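Explain this one:

_____
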Amino acid sequence: MNNQATAAPTTVATLTMTGISKSFGGVAALTDVSLEVLPGEVHALLGENGAGKSTLMNVATGTIRPDTGTLTFRGEALDDLDPRAAARRGIAFVHQHPAVMPDMTVLENLLVALPKSVFSGGRVDDIARGLLETAGLRVHLSDRVENLSVAQKYLLEIAKALAVKPALLVLDEPTAPLGQESVDMLFALVRDFVAQGTSVVYITHRLAEVRELADRVTVLRDGKLRATAVVDEISDKELLSLIVGRQLDSTFPPKHEGSDEEPNFVIDAVTGPGFNDVSVSARRGEIIGVAGVVGNGQSELLRALAGLVPLDGAVVINGTAMSARELLSKAAYLPADRITEGLMMRLSVRENAAVSALRRFRGRALMSRKRELGMVGETLGSLSVKAASLDATVSSLSGGNQQKVMVARALLSEPVLVLADEPTQGVDVGARAEIYQILRDVSASGIPVVIASSDAKELEGLCDTVIVMSRGHVVDTLRGDDLTEERMIHAAVSSTTQTVSVDEIAEAESDERTAVRAAKLRRFLQGDYAPTVLLVAVMLGLGAFIFAQNDRYLGDFNISSMLLLVSALGFIAMGQTIALLTGGIDLSVGPLVGFLVVVGSFFILDEAPVTSIVLGFAAMLGASLIVGLLNGSLIRYAKFTAIAATLTVYIALQGMSFILRPTAEGFINREISSIITTKLGPVPVAFIVLVLVVIGLEYALRKTPWGWRLRAAGSDEESARRVGVEINRTVVLGYVATSALTFLGAIMLMTQIGVGDPAQGVAYTLSSITAVVLGGTSLLGGRGTFVGTLLGSMLLIQVLNATVFLRLDQMWQYILQGVLILAAAILYAIARSKRRRRTAPRA
């Protein structure tokens, strides 16, 4: 064994890191770490969760800048490295948590992450399909990434990494979510790349993979370098000692000794989406494992036992039959995808651990914080969770520590059943032993434990009974001496059972053309444009009803009036759409409209010279751009929330409007108003301009880097940052664009009211948000359309117009607006939840 870096050959190292140190909030993540990676080698990087492995590689790929230390790539010193520059140099990082944007399509994820050069020399779609094929990912380019399984998202990450033909490829726990077929393919790709001279840094917790792939190995512990050695010259026992700082006697605790007592957990002929007729039982102290090739019903079974999806059959725990509803409230479920399903990433470690056990922290009347801190702290301590404090956000923890927080939450909730899907995915060897012992103790206490894992060796060492699933059926049940890794793999790959997937059965019974049409329809319904179809249908239905009551509804005057109103609201709502796409909101658009009209009323007056009019428009535009820059800067640099920042500006603008114009004064130039409200037939030219702007913005949103970056920032900020999106710049410019479009809306409002009225404009804040939500744009950011916003604006104006033609009281304007936005929000929430229920079980 060699505890110092092995002597490097004379060839220039691909990557040299010297004296790297990095702290977060005063907590040292790395301390004076040095690493050298040679051309054509696989360099394994080992360490416990929180040891600094991912942080070190984030420094190497430009995601994080070190406090001290130097970085050299192929002999060239790199001072200001960022992810996009790293990609251009051929540095690729496959993150443990895929850096993908869930609200964007597969193709858009490739486009936003990869350099333009990757897509030169051919059709973009063809090149993208080739990249997916190389990584073994079989999905449609138009599939939304949100609907992909964890394994598919990881394969997408691999496809992005391979696309840049990397000189340095960093793989962070690459096999954790993959099935054996994908693992074999990945290893073959790694060997091919290494043979071509690519350097690979391989972060893993699995020593068997180190033996199979790696040439050298470096071990970190507590953010410090412990050793670098040639793999063949160091034993597993020595590596484990370096990793955990102590000797590990055994990874797996002793198994339950057989007894004649009655089973305390029985599932009998359980059937649900993706699995059929599953039966198994266990006695107190026994752990049940679920094996099989990934995607054959294991995860679906666990979700059904957790009450998350309906099931048929009997589930009996300690002699009591449990319904799906009872299981939902009493079972503890640890999902494989801890980021999407398992944790609330913006909440603290304490809050995530305590959320399922709040009843245990009650005092006489209120929650007892002392009791909560004591119990949560004790449980997290028993799992050796490494966090700056209990109040640190859970997103700041390493993947393994996040997994242990989920385990802590399950233990604190006092469940009747524990269900763990890939419980040690991304967890270091020391923590694995602790989790195994805890699961064994839970089972011994009388709480049944069921584990699904793609690691057959884990199931062999931990479980007392293992059912092997293939295509949703149990093809073998293993106990005692039969419970071996070889038997599990053989049963899984040699099964000839047929799938029970409803989707696959339907496709098998239909011809290929029907299946293709069904897939296209499904993608459309899951896409951003589906709400626009509903809006058109509602508008046509409402219009027909009003016309039936009053035939003047479609008269030229009414059409012109409505489209002029749409023009004002539409421009403002377009700006609001940009703010919402970034994941924010702009409450200041209403007062900004009024303020700009007041500013214009000092310059754009009757008989005013041309220079004054030009100056007035310039002042309005300049004021709008300043407000947008202020909003964006408060949010990104002063760290205000979007609501707080824009509400502050809202108040300031409204106050300034009344200071400048205490009452409505300053009549707008009638010639200018006449020009702006020019019509072609019954259609105002301004509305035509609005439509052209919408088309341009929609094209930019879908087909240009600006649109991809905008949506990426709102979809998943951290992932967007990892792929090289400049978040601060994108968001700030987004708010500037919001204010610029508001300026166009202010011009329309100015011509309609004809006077500088400080009270006008405020209502446009709520109206613009309503129009955007009606158009299908998510309040959470990342998805939406300008076309939908235009139709939402038109529907909103149509509803307000309908109250006049139907002779309804003004109160109905507010009622109908409220009903519309509530209906849109409910329909959107239902659609999202159905997609999650349909796609989340896939492995």
Notes: The CA atoms of residues 512 and 518 lie 10 Å apart.
